[in-house]
Design goal:
The structure is a single chain. The protein has 209 residues and is mainly beta. Helices cover 11% and strands 50% of the residues. The chain has an eight-stranded antiparallel beta barrel with strand order 1-2-3-4-5-6-7-8. It has a four-stranded antiparallel sheet with strand order 12-11-14-15, with no helix packed on it. It is elongated.
């Protein structure tokens, strides 16, 4: 088994002679019910995952060209010798996978019934914006209030996306703020993703209109 894993790793490195668009990107995985599952960080050839960006574990190696995506787990529920093959598409920072073949049913089910929302590359600290309050949530009238409790959590950019990843608001502020009101009154009821950003990091909130 170790020999087979080494062969897979060698193949992965050979494919990465060409630049991959997923390299050094961070994503939040949600299931079909729009419930957060975990974070996924795509390194140069390794996928790391965890429910906290400050505590990630290696999960798989990956490789491919164009929008072709191959994955082999480093252990766990899927054998390292089982290679899954997919295509993926990214639209407005939302990534979805389409199955070609995968002998690991659990992995295939997760990747094809879930979706990933992109997070600012390089962010690894889930403590960013730990003092921020976002209320009310849900909001019947679509008005959300944001308030940070300390200087570190003041924010300079607010972005709102639909569950499909379409950006409906993207505001870069002239200075950092400790409070702000966001209105989604003109948008239909549903689930949205509100992201706050400053020089130290970003955080995505799931809000219900």
């Amino acid at each position: 088994m170790k020999k087979n894993l080494l062969v897979i790793i060698f193949i992965a490195f050979s494919f990465f002679a060409k630049a991959q668009p997923l390299q050094n990107t961070t994503w939040a995985l949600y299931n079909s019910a729009n419930t957060f599952l975990s974070y996924f960080v795509f390194g140069s050839d390794t996928i790391y995952f965890g429910t906290s960006l400050s505590s990630l574990s290696p999960l798989s190696i990956y490789w491919g060209t164009g929008n072709n995506f191959n994955i082999a787990d480093l252990g766990g529920s899927c054998s390292p010798t089982d290679t899954g093959r997919y295509t993926y598409s990214i639209q407005n920072d939302t990534m979805r996978f389409t199955l070609i073949s995968d002998p690991c049913a659990n992995r295939a089910s997760t990747l094809t019934t879930s979706y990933m929302v992109g997070i600012i590359t390089g962010i690894r600290d889930q403590q960013a914006f730990s003092s921020v309050e976002l209320f009310p949530n849900p909001s019947v009238n679509g008005i959300f209030n944001i308030r940070s409790g300390n200087e570190q959590d003041r924010f300079s950019r607010v972005t709102v996306r639909t569950v499909e990843g379409r950006i409906i608001e993207d505001e870069k502020l002239n200075s950092t703020l400790s409070s702000k009101t966001i209105s989604l009154e003109n948008f239909p009821p549903g689930i949205y993703f509100l992201a706050l950003e400053n020089v130290t990091g970003s955080k995505v909130f799931r809000v219900i209109r």
